[in-house]
Amino acid sequence: MKMKNLCGVGAAMITPFKSNGECDMEALGRMLDYVIDGGTDYIVALGTTAETPTLSADEKRHILDFTRKTVAGRTPIVVGAGGNNTAELIRQIQTMDLDGISAILSVTPYYNKPSQEGLYLHYKAVAEASPLPIILYNVPGRTGVNMTAETTCRLAADCPNIVAVKEASGKIDQIDQIIKNRPKDFLVLSGDDGMTVDVMRKGGDGVISVAVNAFPKRFSHVVYLAKQGLFDRAAEAYEPLHEAVCALFEQGNPTGVKAALSLMGHIENSLRLPLVPATDLLIKKLEKLIREYELC
After folding, report:
1. pLDDT confidence band for 1 (50 / 70 / 90)
2. Cis peptide upstream of residue 274 (ω within 30 degrees of 0)
3. What CA–CA distance (Å, rounded) separates 195 from 139?
4. Domain-embedded: residue 195
5. Which residues lie across from 42 on neighbouring strands?
6. pLDDT digits (tens, 9 = 90+) for 240-279
7. What is the SS3 assignment for 137?
């Protein structure tokens, strides 16, 4: 069954921190309201953008509980759960409180660089053990391994519980191959904000976005137009966002988006090591673009 509620734009949520390093739940509540009111179709909690490698198990549980209560059924919620130890990931998923969660976003195993057969068997085991649908997440720039179109489509065909892929390879030909060869109800979601319109023009179903944290109304409108098949209008609507979206990723994610949100008064510009805040040069650039294109 096609997960239509996961089409459109999903917000890969940040984790706001206070200047003392603690999680800022009040700011997270404001952010959830901000992106939902701005037209986001669903929330993605505890993904890469949330700085999950620096969060404790207790903090992750608290953030997920808080997100569930704050969203209060207004949109679906997807939760990130990935790792490079298949057995431990299965244990983690089976012990999580997944009440009210629509799906699990699971990144390809990182650092140990599995083969395509290893990726297939990893996801097959996770899908068979998971009580919720799985969204594959291919982001070779972070993990060191690219899951090919053939492996993605093989998983989609063989595992009914695998319902979508977030594709952040940056390879439009690879994404096009997945779209052409996927099972009927399998969703293809862009993992790169700047490629969203191109992916949807080829038949993709939406995006899991970082930029929507900062510019929810403007970015959601772009995706709305693309969902209607109005791709030229979507590209035109995206054009004023392009420079700012590129700037968000100049010094890594979520460094840029946290700088932008701090400039707009939504959060403190705090990250946890090994990540550090944006340089003054990038902050000035973002400030200029936000003002020039009236993005706040």
Report:
1. low
2. yes
3. 14
4. yes
5. 10
6. 999 999 999 999 999 999 999 999 999 999 999 999 999 9
7. strand
What's at 187, amino acid-wise? Answer: L
The answer to whether residue 278 sits within a structural domain is no
Can you read off the two tokens belonging to residue 20? 């003392």
Burial 61-95 (b: 16+ CB within 10 A, else e): eebbebbbebbeeebbbbbbbbbbebeebbeebee
What sign results for the dihedral spanned by CA atoms 200, 204, 209, 212?
A: positive
All residues at 6 or more sequence positions from 25 whose CB lies less than 8 Å from its CB, including other chains: 62, 63, 66
For residue 23, which of 67, 75, 72 has the smallest C-alpha distance? 67
Which pLDDT belongs to residue 25? 98
CB 145 within 8 A of CB 129: no
Q: Which residues are catalytic?
A: 137, 166
Q: Which two tokens stand for residue 81?
A: 């759960």
21, 52 contact by CB (below 8 A): no
pTM for the predicted model, two decimal places: 0.97
Domain membership of residue 14 (yes or no) is yes
Residue-range definition of the domain harbouring residue 115? 4-228
Angle separating helix axes 116-129 and 149-158, nearest 10 degrees: 30
Q: Does the residue 294 lie in any domain?
A: no
Length of the chain: 296
- Which one, of 8, 18, 16, 55, lies nearest residue 32 by Cα? 16
Q: Which residue has the tokens 């990038």?
A: 282
Angle subtended by helix axes 255-263 and 280-292, to nearest 10:
60
Amino acid identity for residue 203 in this structure: G
